[in-house]
Design goal:
Radius of gyration: 24 Å
Helix content: 10-25%
Order of helices and strands: EEEHHHEEEHEHHEEEEEEEEEEEEHHH
Strand content: 15-25%
Largest sheet: 7 strands, antiparallel
Shape: globular
Number of helices: 9
Number of domains: 3
Distance between the termini: 35 Å
Structural class: alpha+beta
Number of strands: 19
């Protein structure tokens, strides 16, 4: 593949920066056979969930984070994200089934007064998985929303999530848990959990894909397993993670979705370099490696070494194929829809690159559901050794090759999954990759300004106030929204973060309704720190 450079209209290139208290059985209602949904269509969004006794509760800003808090609120962060997806999916299932959901162990717990309300980490887990639900495609090609059962389960002692005979199971719920991925069952062979009606391989009860262990999920998250793979471990390699579809008059999703940021592992981009049959002239030394030496944001990025086999040709094509770690036996779903997050063809998709190797081009391949593989126009990679963002609109047909569409219309009309990031060039090259993302429409700048903690597009007094309010606190590593902006991997709000904020002071566009506010008066000791000349040194990132 040869690069075409930047063509008008342009792709965008930018520069920048408790396990649950023993937990209870959830969803004892029998799973009914198949919700009837049109094939190859996204599930409509529920802006609110009708909770019996509470009325209609906002889904993303109230219902899901509070279920996460009540059901598994002190778990590892990836387990909280898996819980958010399971809670959202089960709520959607109940809403589609009967228009409401109970607040209690007969369905799932939304609020118990003695436990209080959701905390920031539960909102963070919800935001990170905003709009994501789980489905399965049945024998007829219809997408079925699953009943995402979960229970407390036994507390694993390792080395795997499967509990040992001596492990504690205080709620006696491990008997309901399914370890679907390691047993390799998919399709009709996945008979689910006895919590729901069990069909047969030829007549499955499709909504019943198994039951997740909350203690097991917490264990997996502590071992560096992503929330996507946690869900696949319990519900099956063929389970589909996808975003819901806003209907007429509903707002789109509100948060940038980081598909892979390399902070935990290689995410969707850890597959063998020789996986694609469409690679061209790659040498044996082509490799990928997660590294801490180069990151656009946070601590980790990925280094890609591309070895041109000069004996085979004068140029190369390398398809960096996507797919989750638990992609089935022999990676059967790698690169396929099932091993990726299915997205509405709205907004934009992109990533950040840094290289000093000249002559590189980069593009995207996406799989459009039912319509084959589509190609985004490749662009030239800037070789100045700095981070740049490469972004393609999913709504601009001029950025997509009509020659690869079955219909030939150059329009992405069905849900899409990222198939591969494709590099081409004519010499050995080294490129760093970070922060693969999807940005919903009308999000504004798809990446925050370093130091813009409150997300208003400007680094100023609001961000300083936010940082000071969290001074000396420990937060999740790399969580910009809570002030960990220094990129040093300590997850501690302190001088390094403040230096970064000050070095970007007044960057961005001030909000039109901005009104100056007073900086909270710090204590005497903090004032002394602020007065130190060391504070004013710009930290090298």
């Amino acid at each position: 593949m040869s690069g075409t450079g930047l063509l008008a209209p342009k792709a965008v290139i930018s520069t920048g920066p408790r396990p649950k208290r023993a937990a209870w059985i959830v969803g004892l209602a029998v799973c009914l056979l198949g919700s009837h949904h049109t094939a190859h269509a996204a599930f409509d969004q529920f802006e609110t969930i009708n909770v019996v006794g509470f009325g209609h509760v906002p889904t993303e800003t109230d219902y899901v984070p509070n279920v996460v808090h009540q059901e598994n609120g002190a778990a590892s962060f990836e387990a909280l994200k898996a819980q958010a997806v399971a809670a959202r999916t089960f709520a959607y299932y109940k809403m589609r089934l009967g228009g409401s959901i109970q607040n209690g162990t007969q369905d799932q717990v939304y609020h118990i007064p003695s436990r209080g309300w959701a905390r920031q980490v539960h909102f963070d887990a919800t935001n990170a998985t905003e709009g994501e639900i789980l489905s399965i495609r049945n024998f007829s090609g219809n997408d079925i929303l699953i009943a995402s059962f979960y229970v407390a389960g036994a507390i694993p002692s390792g080395p795997t999530p499967v509990p040992n005979p001596w492990d504690s199971d205080p709620t006696n719920t491990e008997k309901w848990v399914t370890h679907t991925y390691p047993t390799g069952v998919i399709g009709g062979d996945n008979l689910g959990t006895p919590l729901g009606f069990i069909g047969s391989p030829t007549n499955p009860n499709w909504p019943n894909r198994g039951a997740k262990s909350q203690n097991g999920a917490n264990f997996m998250g502590q071992q560096g397993i992503s929330y996507v793979d946690i869900l696949k471990y319990y519900y099956g390699a063929d389970i589909q993670l996808e975003t819901v579809s806003p209907t007429g008059g509903q707002p789109p999703l509100q948060h940038l979705k980081l598909l892979t940021d390399f902070e935990l592992n290689d995410g969707y981009l850890g597959n063998p370099t020789d996986f694609s049959a469409n690679n061209l002239n790659l040498g044996a030394s082509t490799s990928i490696q997660r590294v801490s030496s180069h990151a656009h944001d946070g601590v980790f990025g990925q280094r890609i070494d591309i070895d041109l086999d000069e004996g085979a040709g004068s140029s190369f094509v390398f398809n960096h194929v996507t797919g989750t770690e638990f992609a089935g036996v022999s990676n059967m779903f790698t690169g396929e829809r099932e091993a990726n997050l299915a997205l509405e063809p709205l907004g934009s998709i992109g990533f950040w690159l840094k290289t000093s190797s000249p002559g590189l081009n980069v593009g995207l391949h996406v799989d459009e559901d039912g319509d084959g593989t589509e190609l985004a126009l490749p662009v030239s990679v800037i070789d100045d050794g700095q981070w740049h963002m490469y972004e393609w609109s999913l709504e601009d047909p001029a950025l997509w090759s009509s020659g690869l569409y079955d219909s030939g219309d150059g329009i992405l009309s069905n849900s899409i999954t990222l198939d591969a990031i494709t590099f081409s060039g004519n010499q050995d090259s080294v490129v760093y990759l970070d922060d693969l993302f999807w940005a919903p429409p009308n999000l504004g700048p798809p990446w925050p300004i370093l130091g813009d903690i409150d997300g208003d597009g400007f680094v100023g007094i609001g961000d300083l106030n936010y940082l000071l309010a969290r001074w000396n606190q420990t937060v999740p590593v790399g969580d910009h929204a809570q002030g960990d902006i220094a990129g040093n991997g300590d997850g501690f709000i302190g001088i390094d973060d403040l230096n970064v904020l000050l070095s970007n002071w007044n960057v961005g566009t001030p909000p039109t309704d901005a009104v100056g506010s007073l900086v909270p008066e710090p204590g005497t000791a903090l004032l002394a720190i602020f007065a130190s000349p060391l504070l004013l040194r710009r930290r090298s990132l």
